[in-house]
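User: Batch of two.

Assistant: Item 1 of 2:
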Amino acid sequence: MFRRLFQAHPASVGETYLEHMVHAAYFGSRMLLAGLACLIHALIPSLFQSTGREAITELYTKMVTHRRATATDTSSDASRQVRVT
């Protein structure tokens, strides 16, 4: 049960629990701040004109870059594979 809740998903993306927690917290806080900027932009269109787009672009780039790096690491190093039962 512990392994399924806290280790299976991070292992599936090539991260430890703590690495995954840091990345997920960064992504979540970045999305919250960008969302707040978008709500303010909805009220006052001259403010935060590109903040939402820039946040989405930044997060997408980080996610894809990390995914490619992880795929390269796991394909070249079979010892990092984690078997979840």
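Item 2 of 2:
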Amino acid sequence: MAPLIDEYLPVRPRKASASRRRRHVNQLRFRLQQHAPGAVSILLTPVWVDGHGPQERVFVARALAATGKPLLLRPGSSRAIAALLQGAFPTADWNQAQTWRADTNRITSWLERRAA
């Protein structure tokens, strides 16, 4: 008998159509503010965990206010923020930490930031 899978999350998210990506990017700032009100930047870091089985990738989000202080996120917000950013930027390398900034509405990889 095959084991039951509670939830299936692909390693690489499905690529959306161009119109859907544009809509996600246009609505992204509003949707992220619902999960992290007042955030000017959000760091999304992939973490591999082993919960008594095969390793699974989960994302940890950290939101910063304009003052530089971290904002408290509600339970489940990291997962929702990861889904929103992956839907808006499906071509990004999600095996690396990504930073979203509210002023530019773009994400940058930590490796790109270190090289600059």
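The beta strands are 41-49, 56-64, 70-71, 98-101, 106-109.
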